[in-house]
Amino acid sequence: MKVIQVDHYKQMSEKASDMLFESIKGEKNLVLGLATGGTPVKTYEILTTRINSEKVDMSTVQTINLDEYIGLDAKHLNSYHQYMEDHFFKHVPISPDQTHLPNGVANDLDAECKRYEELIDTIGGVDIQLLGIGSNGHIGFNEPGTPFHETTHVVELAKSTREANARFFSSDEEVPTHAITMGIATIMKSKQVVLLASGKSKADALKQLIEGEVTESCPATVLQNHPNLMIIADHEALSKLSKSTLEQIEANNYISST
Ligand code: F6R
Fold it and tell me: Whose CA, among 120, 157, 165, 206, lies 20 to 30 Å from 137?
C-alpha cells in the first residue's frame, strides 16, 4: 500500500488527475474504472482541462463505473450516468460506446449484474480503479457486511449512505434505496486501485482501512490485500492514524500492507 499525504482537497485532486492523465496519455487500450460522488469532482475538472489543452487522444480508452442507483434512468438529474456526463464525458473526446455504467432501470436486474460483470472481463479487466470511501467504510456501494466474494450485485443502501447522499437530491425521500454496484471481488480484480479521501468525515474509515483488521464490517479494509493500492488523502482524512503510521507516511509516502 502506498499512501500519499497531501495538504487539502485541491492537492488531492491534482495528484489524482496527474496520475490518471499520464495513464490516459501513455497507455493504449486503457480501461479506467471510475467513481462518482463529491470526492472526484475536482479530479475530473482538472483532468478535463489537461486532456483538452494537450489534445490527448482518448480513442482507445474505455471507462467503466462502479455503480448506479436503481430506478433512475440515464437522463435523471441525479443518476450517475448524468453525473459522469456533467463532470467528465461531455467535456472530453470520448464517445458513448467507450463509456459504461450499470443500467439502473433494467427489467431484469440480476441479468444486468451478470452482463456488467462479463463486460468488465470482455474489455480486458480494469487497469486503474478510482475509488472514494464512505464514512462507514463502503467502497462502491458495498456496505458493511458485504461478503468479500461478491461480484456485481444489487444492494440496499445503508441509512447513513442515503443520508450522506441526500445533499445531491431535493428531498431525503428522493434518494434511491437500492443500487447496482461492482462487488468487492470485482474491485479486487482491478490491476491498480487509487482511493481518494478528503476531510474529517473520512478519518475513521481511513484509519480502519490503513491500520485496522481486515473485516467485512468495514469493506474498504479488504484493500489491504490488494497488491497495487495507492491512497491519496489529505491531512484531515489521515488525522486519526497513529503517530508511528503518520511518521512512516511522512518519511516515504509509503507503508507496507498490515
Ligand atoms: C461512488 C461510490 C461511493 C463514493 C463514496 C464517497 O461511485 O461508489 O463509494 O465513492 O460514497 O462519496 P463522496 O465522495 O461523496 O464522499
Answer: 120
Q: What pLDDT is stored for residue 254 in this prediction?
A: 74
Distance 138 CA to ligand 1 centre (A): 8
Q: Which domains, and CATH codes, for the chain?
A: 2-250 (3.40.50.1360)
Amino acid present at 138: H
Q: Which three cell numbers stand for residue 172?
A: 431525503
| Dihedral in degrees, nearest 10, Cα atoms 34, 40, 42, 47 | -20
The closest alpha carbon to 36, from 121, 141, 115, belongs to 141
Give the contacts of 22 (CB within 8 A, at least 6 positions apart).
none
Which are the catalytic amino acids? Answer: 67, 136, 138, 143
Using the predicted structure, report yes or no on whether residue 258 has a pLDDT greater than 60. no
Pocket test for ligand 1, best of 9, 32, 36, 196 (most atoms within 8 A of CB): 36
Overall pTM > 0.90:
yes
What are 123's three cell numbers? Answer: 474489455
Q: Decide: helix, strand or coil at residue 96.
A: helix
**Residue with CA at minimum distance from ligand 1 atom 1:** 36
Q: Which residues pair with 254 in a beta bridge?
A: 2
